[in-house]
Sequence to fold (233 residues):
Amino acid sequence: MPEPQPRSGSTGTQILHDLSHPIRDSMMTYPGDPAVAVAPALRIPTDGVEVARLTLGSHSGTHVDAPAHTIAGGRTMADVDLHELFGEAAVLRAPHAGEGEPYGLDDLEFDGSSVPDRLPPIVLIDTGWAQEFGHRGALNHPWLLPRAAEELWSRGMRVLGVDTLSPDPTDDPTSAFPVHEAVLGRDGLIVENLRGLEHLPPSVKVGIFPLRYEGDGAPVRAVAFTDGPRMAG
Fold:
């Protein structure tokens, strides 16, 4: 993945970490979702400008799920305030998450220790599975136990971010969406297909910026902000 980008600030360097997969033609999507197509619509030689035509579903690439995604009558993206998707986040690690296996609260670590009793509203879970995005293995990712999602909610989480196609099982046609129910059913939000979480400290400021779109979800540009040493000069 691209190296984090430094930006000079008044007291030092702020490092920007891009946590989003780029939108590409024919990129991986959740099974059954619309395919992603990126094609020229206008060209400089014939039209004087370059314009691309994008065809994609609302849950393409790195994206946010609004409650309306799985909850009848739930909030749409039109009702989601940007402040819900910006602020301090806890990065939880699932170092032993196995292929197609569930993981629970006891399998999650925060800064090498157990999950704290109080969490910030945004929780990001690093399973190490982002590297599988675009490959067949991504479909058989680790998944969060519903009771763990409920416990994270009770400790303060309101936005759940994962580096997999879903916090629920994907490669199982009989599976329901219990973690979606636990989070979206409580009017929370879910962010899927994050990447680069392994580069982040346990506590970090993040911004998750969705397309301004009145629907059940939207692609996002997700960014984490860390401080670096002051730049010379």
Notes: The domain at 5-23+58-228 is CATH 3.50.30.50 (Glucose Oxidase; domain 1). The chain has one domain: 5-23+58-228. The longest helix spans residues 146-154. DSSP finds three helices and 13 strands in the chain.
